[in-house]
Structure formats: structure tokens, C-alpha cells
UniProtKB/TrEMBL annotation:
It holds the Pfam family LysR_substrate. Keywords: DNA-binding, Transcription, Transcription regulation. The keyword Transcription regulation applies. Residues 2-59 form the HTH lysR-type domain. Belongs to the LysR transcriptional regulatory family. It comes from Paracoccus nototheniae. InterPro entries: LysR_HTH_N (IPR000847), LysR_subst-bd (IPR005119), WH-like_DNA-bd_sf (IPR036388), WH_DNA-bd_sf (IPR036390). PANTHER family: HTH-TYPE TRANSCRIPTIONAL REGULATOR, HTH-TYPE TRANSCRIPTIONAL REGULATOR YJIE. This is LysR family transcriptional regulator.
Amino acid sequence: MINTDLFRDFLHLVQSRNFSTTARDRGMSQSTLSRRIATLEDYVGADLFDRGIQPVALTEAGEMLLPLAQDILERMEEVRGIGHPDARRPDQKCHLIALSTLALHFFPDWLAQYAAEPVWQVDLLNTEPLLAANIRNFLLGQAEFLLTFADDRVPDLQALRHHRYIVLGHETAVPVTRPDAQGGPLWPLEGGAEIAYCGYTKGSFFQQALAPHFDKLGARIRKVRDNSMAAVIHGLVRQGHGMCWLPSVMVEDDLQSGVLVRAGGHEFDLETEIRLYRSHNMGRYAQSMWGAVSAGHQICRKAVRMA
């Protein structure tokens, strides 16, 4: 009978992609970890990692084992929970990283849906300006959960392609601008005029997700301001510096009052998912929370090879 802790070693290494990091976090020497992974490989009958590249990558056999190892450990936690009803003690907590817009406009109301007694204790960690930095902190184990906008065309999200997630909702980023004297868009996307654009910093989620619109508008669009936070850009657009795509949750009141108007039709909208990613490596408290918030959702996996 194989030790299920070997699956924990495996999942930690899948996330860290580094033997020394996993050995340190798992409280063992690197040589011990290597032997344990080799034991698992002997049991499976194939190499699970390509050790010839850095960071290490999953082999085809490793990709096949990944969802099975995840399911095995989750089932073991369920078995253990039968006789351990204190898995959700009030002195425990877990950690979540969220993009700034979601931290302000989505996270509080979403968590309030699960306000049974005792309330889930979730530390919301400081958000980095760029998507890649938030993903890096998540992969380094700073949080068990990552709450992010998602579009599979965004390159940085490929780093999460072997993590499970649930879709909590959808958000539409709409092109908005101050109105001109006649009430029309000051910076219209239709037509051939130059467009002043209050842009997202390179590497931010929306900067990457909006690439198809930038390609369509071509040289007409001219960046006049630059920031990684939608809240800051919202203020710049309201002041008339230019147009931008902003989450509808931020601008719906401005659109109703006429402070802002649409800069273009619905063909210029950007539809995104709101995803909650979970770590491969979670304690019983975080695992219990995942069970609660994922109930009724399809748990998704991306069947894509690590590169």
C-alpha cells in the first residue's frame, strides 16, 4: 500500500516546480524528496517529471496522475472528516489573493453568502499591481486561493493551467468615456478619429485581455495615461483624459447618471469569467472551505501540458 503522503509531495512539486523548494516546505532534504518521488514513479511505472529542464515539467504520465492524485487526497480528507467535526475551528483561517477590483467589488458580497456560524475566516492578502505577480505569490504558497478575472487568451493565466478552479460569475468590461457637449462619446471607437486611451499597465489582466480590440483599432488608439488599477483609471476617464474599458460593476452608476457614456457598441465589450483557483496544497480548514464554496459548481481543469 503506497503512502498517500507521496501524493502530497507530488502535488507540492507540481505547484513549485522546484525540488529544493518542495523539500524545504515539506520538511525534508532534497535527496529524501527525490527518493520519495522515485518511489511514486516506481509505483506508477513511469517518470512523472522531466528533470532535464528547469523549472521541472510534468511528463505525460505526470499529467495523467495529476487529477487522480488531487481526487485521492480530497477523498482522504472526506474520510478523515467523518470523525473530526472540529475541522472548522474558529481559531483557524485561510488566505486568499484577489485582483484589486474583485477585492473591492466582488469578494465581500461573495463571502457573505457563506456566513453560517462560525463565519469563514479568510485573510485577504495585499494585491500586487500585475497579474503575473499575484499568480507567482499564489504558486509560492502565500495563499490557498486566487480570485481573478479570467480569459483563456491571457498569456499569464497559462501558469495556472493545471490548477482546479470554479467559475463564480461573469463580468463585462465596457468601453466608456466622458460625453461631449452633445451627449455623445468624447472619444468614440467608431469612425476614424484618433482615440485617447487611459491604458492599463503592461502585464495587467485587462491589458492582455484587450489585445484583440487593440489589434482591431490599430494606430487610432493612443495611450495618454497608464495605470495597473481600474479604480485609478476610472477617475482619469471621469476627468476626460481619455476612454477605457472598465468593469461594468464600477461604471453602471456613472452610465445611468450620464457622467460617462459608452465609447462604442456591444461588439467592443470584453466578457470575462470570475474564477476562484485553489492551491494543490491545502490544510483541512481550507479544504473544508473549498468544499463549501465549490458545492453546486463544476470543478474545472485545463488538460494542457506544462511547458
